[in-house]
Design a protein that fits this description.
By secondary structure, the protein is an alpha/beta fold. The chain has 2 domains: 4-132, Response regulator (Rossmann fold, 3-Layer(aba) Sandwich); 136-232, Arc Repressor Mutant, subunit A (Orthogonal Bundle). 42% of the residues lie in helices and 19% in strands. It has helices spanning 12-24, 35-42, 61-68, 85-94, 106-132, 163-174, 182-188, 200-212; strands at 4-8, 28-32, 49-53, 76-80, 98-101, 136-139, 142-145, 150-152, 158-159, 222-225, 229-232. Strands 2-1-3-4-5 form a 5-stranded parallel sheet, sandwiched between helices. A 4-stranded antiparallel sheet has the order 6-7-8-9, covered by helices on one side. A hairpin with a 3-residue loop joins strand 10 and strand 11 (229-232). Helix 6 (163-174) crosses helix 8 (200-212). The radius of gyration is 26 Å and the shape is elongated.
Length: 233
Amino acid sequence: MYHSVIICDDEAPLRKMLADHLSECGYAVQEVENAAELMALLAKQEPDLVLLDVRMPGKDGFTALRDIRMDSQVPVMMLTAAGDVVDKVLGLEFGADDYLVKPVDLRELQARIKAAIRRSAIRETEQEKHDRLSGTVPFGTCHLDLDSARLFAEDGSEIAITAMEFSLLRVFAENRGRILNRDQLLAKAHDRGWEPFDRSIDLRISRIRRKVEKNPEKPEVIRTVHGIGYVFG
C-alpha cells in the first residue's frame, strides 16, 4: 500500500531532494511551495502525512498548521532550522506530530515518517474501536445501547435483557465477524459460574435470538458455526 506525503517548502532544491528520496522509498509525493497551495490541496484530498517548513514567505508554517488543525488530524512533521528550540516547542504546541531539523538526514526522515504514520494508524484504530463500543450497535433491526446497557426494538420500545445477555451482546459487538467458541464467550462475558465445555451458553444465545432475530429458527444476526461456536455480523 502506497502512503501519500505532501511536502510544503519554499526551497525548491530541498523540496526536490526530499520528494525524489521519498518517491524512491515508495511514497506517493506531491510538492507545494507555500501555505496557500498546501491548503488548496488539502481541501481536495488528505494525505497520510504533511512535511511542513516553518519559515516560508507569506503565511508561515505555524499559521498553516493552526489552520490544518481546525478540521484535520493528518500527521504533520515540521521542518525547522538547526538548534531552533522555540520552533520545536511552538510546533508541538500547535499540534505538530514531530519535527525534523535541517539539514535533513534522509534516513532519519524516512524513519520518522514511518513512525508518524504508524502512530496515526493506531490512533485511528483506537478511535474506531471507541466509536464502535460507545453509543449504539445494531443487532438486526434492534439496537443495543452500550452506555445504558439497554436493548431497543425497531420502533423504539425497550426489550428487557438480563445483565448476562447484555454482556454477551457486548462481546459480540467487540468481536464482529470473529467466530467465538462457547468457552471464549463465557470467559469474555465474565460469567464466574461457567465451567469448561458449559453448554448453558446455547440456552442464553437462544434467548437472545428470540429478541433480536426476525426468525430465531433461521438466525441471521448471530449465526451458528457448526462444530465451532457463534459469529455476529
